[in-house]
Amino acid sequence: MFYPGGLKRKYQTTVQYGNRGMTLEEDINETNTFYLTHDRGVIYKKPTPLTITKVDYPSRKEAVVKEAYFKTPSTTDYNGIYKGRYIDFDAKESKSTTSFPIRNIHPHQIDHLKAVIHHGGIAFLIVRFTTLDETYYLKAEDLFDFMKCSTRKSIPISYFREQATKIQNRIHPRIDYLKVIDELYF
Question: What is the mean pLDDT of residues 16-28?
Fold first, then answer.
């Protein structure tokens, strides 16, 4: 651009491709806020239990955690109550277009989901295939059945398409998983 007095200025725009879309966790957090605001349910993200071992205090407002360790293995990402039922679930993302690796679900998480079901709660996974932009609600019972009946180390996308419930992305709520719970349980 040319300005009076002979000044020449160049403007460059940088296109950044990272974080183009919201992550699954951000979508679920926004959905949970919508549910709470509209009195549909009370569901929260569980905090990750950490033990902080080293902190730098340049000033009170600028404290920086330099070292921390996981206190115990975390169970699942979210829990809450909906229509008098306890719900507990984990959110997982995969870049694969063909399958979801079972190794992404830790043994202690599987044990936790089994315990929730044993005590009458609703347990599930929300799995997003980011490359395909497809999000699914997979009942924990269906996950356990697949793991019991298959020797595969991943769950094929075809299993999700046949057995799980696809969740359409919306504006409000963004990931309406309570609609799926209504269809399956109420």
Answer: 68
